[in-house]
Design goal:
This protein has 3 helices and 4 strands; from the N terminus they run H-E-H-E-E-H-E. Strand 2 and strand 3 form a beta hairpin. It binds copper (II) ion (CU). Copper (II) ion binds next to loops. It comes from Edaphobacter modestus.
Amino acid sequence: MKLLHGAIATVLFAVSSPLWAAPKSVTLAVPGMTCPTCPVTIKKALMKEQGVASVTVRYEKKELIVSFDDAKTTPDAIMKSTAAVGFPSQIAR
Ligand SMILES: [Cu+2]
């Protein structure tokens, strides 16, 4: 049963991958988030980017978790758009 399940998942993935690339996520350190409205600005900017699926803010850690479609954008492009609104970021850890 386990094997069969794996085979089905593989087939589904192969069929759907051109349209539905696997979502990736990246944790970004944003040292410039110094007040609670900063993440709002960043989130707004990122949600306008093509391929960004969701943005989770961890304000207390000055981090963002961004999930994105790697067929449409890259962590590099995401970091560029946070910098464009005044918040340079880098990949955490
Ligand atoms: Cu602020």
